[in-house]
Design brief:
314 residues
C-alpha cells in the first residue's frame, strides 16, 4: 500500500479551481518532491493531505486514512510529522522545552537529545526560541517535525534561510530518516535540493500535475538534447571543426545534439588528428531547473551574447 494515494483531487475557492484533477502516489520509504510555482496548487494539495483543509472532490489516503475523517484524525496525526514554513512556537520556551512538549504528543517519540544533535541545536538547547537566528529557527522547525518519529514527514520549504553548510546538514538528516523507513513528502523551490533528495518528483502548475518521474528522467532529461561546449585557444589558426557549432562572443563553442557519443568521437578524433587543443570540454543535458521552467511556462530571454553564425566545415 502506498504511503500517500491521491486520485482526481479537486479544490475550488470562490469559483476558482486551485486544484484540478490531481493524481499521484508516494511509495513507502521514498522521498517524493512536489514542485511548482507560487499559486500552482502545491500548498493547497499539501494542506489537504495533512488534514488542515477539506477537499471538494477526489479520493485521498494518507497512511491508509482519509485525512478529512475526524474519527481517525488523531491516529493519523500520531503517525505524521509536519515542518511548516513559519515557526509556530511560543517565543519564551527554550529549545529543549519546545521539543519535549511536541514529543509528548506522540506514542513513540525520539529522544530529545538525539533530535537536538540531528538538527545541530545541542549547544542551543537551553536558549529561548526568540533568541534564535532565522536559520536556527528553521532547524528547530525540522526538529519539531521529526521528534515524534513519524512514519510520514511533510517538509514544506525545509531549508529556507539555511546557509550552504546547514542545508547539507538538513539533507543528511532527511537521508538518515528515509534510511530508517520514514516516507518524506517535500516541497522546495531549490532544484538542487529536489535533485539531491528526491526519488521521484511531480511538477504541479495551474492546479494540475504536468509531469512526474525521477529527477534524472523528468521531461525527457535522460534522452533529450545535450550541449557540448569547449574553447579553442587559437581560434583563427585552427582548421574548421568538422561539426556545425555556434560560437559566443567570449569564444565558447557549443554543439547541440541528441547523438553526443557520435559527436564527441568525431570532435576528439579531429582534435587528435589536427593536433588542436580542445579546452574545457563539457557535456551537459537539460538541468532539472531547465525542465521545471519549461513545464511551468517560463520563457527565457534571448542571450544577446550568443552568435547565430554557424562555424564548421561545409
Amino acid at each position: 500500500m502506498p504511503a500517500v494515494s491521491v486520485e482526481h483531487l479537486a479544490k475550488t475557492y470562490e469559483g476558482v479551481d486551485a486544484v484540478k484533477d490531481v493524481t499521484f502516489e508516494v511509495n513507502e520509504g521514498e522521498v517524493f518532491a512536489l514542485l511548482g510555482p507560487n499559486g500552482a496548487g502545491k500548498t493547497t494539495t499539501i494542506e489537504i493531505l495533512e488534514g488542515f483543509r477539506k477537499r471538494d472532490g477526489g479520493r485521498v489516503e494518507v497512511l491508509g486514512y482519509d485525512p478529512a475523517d475526524a474519527a481517525t484524525s488523531r491516529r493519523l496525526r500520531e503517525r505524521i510529522g509536519v515542518v511548516l514554513q513559519e515557526l509556530a512556537v511560543e517565543p519564551f520556551l527554550s529549545v529543549r522545552q519546545a521539543l519535549t512538549r511536541n514529543a509528548g504528543y506522540y506514542p513513540n517519540p525520539r529522544s530529545v537529545d538525539e533530535v537536538l544533535q540531528l538538527v545541530g541545536l545541542s549547544e542551543k538547547a537551553d536558549d529561548r526560541v526568540k533568541s534564535l537566528s532565522g536559520g536556527q529557527q528553521r532547524r528547530l522547525d525540522l526538529g519539531l517535525g521529526i521528534v515524534g518519529n513519524p512514519d510520514l514527514l511533510f517538509l514544506d520549504e525545509p531549508t529556507t534561510g539555511f546557509d550552504p553548510s546547514a542545508r547539507r546538514g538538513a539533507w543528511d538528516v532527511v537521508r538518515a530518516l528515509t534510511g530508517g523507513g520514514t516516507t518524506v513528502l517535500l516541497t522546495t523551490h531549490y532544484m538542487d535540493e529536489a535533485e539531491a533528495l528526491a526519488d521521484r518528483v511531480a511538477v504541479i502548475n495551474a492546479g494540475r500535475i504536468v509531469a512526474e518521474g525521477t529527477p534524472e528522467s523528468l521531461g525527457g532529461r535522460d534522452v533529450g538534447e545535450s550541449s557540448i561546449r569547449f574553447r579553442l585557444p587559437d581560434a583563427d589558426g585552427n582548421p574548421p571543426i568538422p561539426i556545425p557549432a555556434t560560437v559566443s562572443t567570449n569564444g565558447i563553442y557549443e554543439i547541440k545534439t541528441d547523438k553526443e557519443i557520435e559527436v564527441l568521437a568525431t570532435l576528439t578524433n579531429w582534435a587528435l588528428r589536427e593536433k588542436v587543443n580542445v579546452v574545457g570540454l563539457t557535456v551537459e543535458r537539460l538541468t532539472l531547473e531547465d525542465v521545471y521552467l519549461r513545464l511551468t511556462g517560463y520563457e527565457p530571454d534571448t542571450d544577446p551574447d550568443a552568435s547565430s553564425v554557424w562555424i564548421g566545415s561545409s
